[in-house]
Amino acid sequence: MPKLSAIITLTSSLILGVGGVWIAYNVNMLPASASMNAPVYDELYRVLFIIGCLLFIGMTALVIYSLVQFRRKPGETGDGIDLEGNITLEIFWTAVPAIVVLFVGLYSYDIYDRMGGMQPLMHDHSGHIGNQEERVWGGIGSGPIEASTSNKSSSLPIELTAMQFAFIFHYPKGDIISGELHVPVGREVSLKMESKDVIHAFWVPQFRLKQDVIPGQPTILNFTPTKAGNFPIVCAELCGPYHGGMRSNVIVDKQEDFDNWIKENSKETI
């Protein structure tokens, strides 16, 4: 009987593991990926989704099995068996969650570091903020790749001002002010963000980007769009009574269409 229970447990675990992986790779609840940052975030999401499926399905199945197997039988009036002192079981249900939490924490830290979250910022005398090392991010499984000088020089600078309850974008080249963010596909964008009142958040779900916009503390957000289209910008930080209406759009154009937009809206001769 103990061998049979072990076989059933092992078989159920294998089925559960394969099922969790299949669900994670075939059930996609995320919006379309539209930036170079997205695959790295999606990698972390997929791992967390697999762990969540294993825990949810496994615990639900165990609860249902217990309700059926150990229910009160007709005619039973006494209490159930009083079990205590199972050191092996206590070690197991303490060790497994500890290992899972440790793995998730270390893996999340690795993803955060690969996305540049651990890069220190430096202030110059003019009050601007810049990364000590610019980075370009590749696909799943790739580490940071130092950007070449040409890539840095081709980065598109844009200034974002957040206020209750709107996002305002300023393009230094052409001195353009817009309520929508226009960017070219395939080109790195360097977005300098600052708030004029309270803490806001710049969130583009398709880009997998979410960054707080803090008053008095400019922050730099670098990203590269990979898909043309119109994507929503949402304030993800409660900022007042009209927080839900603080929205805009990022319009990703082909380079030619973006250049035409710049020429049509520029206040300067470019």
Strand content: 25-35%
- If helices are DSSP runs of H or I spanning 4 or more residues, what is the number of helices? 5
Q: Which fold name is given in CATH as the topology of the largest domain?
A: Immunoglobulin-like
Shape: elongated
**Helicity level:** 25-40%
Q: How would you sum up the major sheet? A: 5 strands, mixed
Mean pLDDT: 81
Report, as a whole number of angstroms, the end-to-end distance. Answer: 83 Å
Number of individual domains: 2
CATH class placement of the largest domain: Mainly Beta
The parts where pLDDT drops under 50 for at least 5 residues are 121-151
- The fourth-level CATH homologous superfamily of the largest domain is Cupredoxins -  blue copper proteins
The topology string of helices and strands comes to HHHEEEEHEEEEEEEEEEH
CATH architectural group of the largest domain: Sandwich
Structural class: alpha+beta
* Rg value: 26 Å
Number of strands: 14
Widest sheet: strand order?
7-6-5-9-12
